[in-house]
Design a protein that fits this description.
The protein is of the alpha+beta class. Helix content is 63%, strand content 8%.
């Protein structure tokens, strides 16, 4: 934990400077806000306001509580129950001479945190990082909650958009592992496909789908096939980071093995192998154009 905190402090100094890259800023935000997240006995995640105060670089509780009050107002105006997202809890802190003092704290939902950073001091760079983090995570949660009510086209759009986010994260994790050049990354990606598709690489999948050279195979997958690839990408990303994997060969093998495990799981569940799933008639781009046409003027 001490090593993690030291690393986080290093990220903090860089993230709040002008020279830190966007990817590293996002990684810092992920580490910062996930580190102070809690999960209750019902599996529900929450953040303590006092922890969030420190993460967002507020030195005075009075100032931060003003931001919380603005967030509460925004919550009420959105039609949500304040108590569902801002649960008051008491905390005790040690004082001199063995005395204790009770202070106000809140258990905050992800949505509450989102509203707080939206109403925070815009001059603080960490506020901008928090806005991005909680906006993305809140959108992902909404996607999960509403997924079953979506039709096939919207499911494809939703998962394809998630693939874009997670492929970016996977690329960063692969780079940290030593997959540096575009050619290296192409080989790395191909290994993942080969594991998932029973030895078929990107070129072979492309041919089976009878696509043009310029067409991306991910834009011509149904929701089930996209979901399998999303799982492959997220699990590989997590494994590379968690196990601090280094070296191109090891990273490539990891991606292949994760793909193979996903394929094995599909087989155990009696599912259809991804290479045998039908190719949709419409591409993701066609669906996006149709949805834009249906938007009200």
């Amino acid at each position: 934990m001490d090593d993690f905190n030291k690393r986080l402090d290093e990220f903090s100094e860089q993230a709040l400077s002008e020279t830190f890259t966007e990817d590293n800023q996002n990684n810092y935000a992920e580490a910062l806000f996930e580190k102070i997240k809690h999960v209750n006995e019902h599996g529900q995640e929450f953040w303590y306001a006092r922890d969030l105060q420190g993460a967002l670089d507020y030195t005075q509780w009075r100032r931060f509580n003003e931001t919380i009050e603005r967030a509460k107002t925004a919550c009420k105006n959105s039609g949500e129950s304040i108590s569902d997202h801002f649960a008051e809890v008491g905390k005790t802190i040690e004082m001199p001479k063995n005395a204790v003092k009770k202070i106000l704290d809140y258990q905050l939902s992800r949505y509450a945190c989102y509203l707080i950073v939206q109403n925070g001091d815009p001059r603080k760079k960490v506020i901008a990082l928090g806005q991005t983090y909680f906006a993305v995570k809140t959108r992902q949660q909404e996607l999960i909650e509403n997924y079953d009510s979506l039709d096939e086209d919207r499911k494809r759009l939703a998962i394809r958009n998630e693939m874009k986010i997670h492929n970016k994260s996977l690329a960063e994790a692969a780079k940290q592992a030593g997959v540096e050049t575009p050619r290296d990354y192409a080989v790395f990606q191909n290994k993942g496909y080969q594991g998932l598709y029973g030895g078929l690489g990107q070129k072979e999948i492309h041919a089976r789908k009878e696509l043009k050279k310029s067409q991306n195979i991910l834009d011509h997958m149904g929701s089930t096939e996209l979901a399998a690839n999303l799982f492959r990408a997220t699990q590989t990303d997590e494994k590379l980071r968690k196990e601090n994997i280094t070296g191109k060969k090891v990273a490539n093998h990891t991606h292949f093995e994760v793909g193979r495990k996903v394929r094995q799981t599909i087989a155990e569940l009696g599912g259809t192998m991804p290479e045998d799933l039908p190719t949709p008639q419409k591409s993701i781009q066609q669906i996006e154009r149709e949805q834009r046409k249906n938007l009200p003027d």
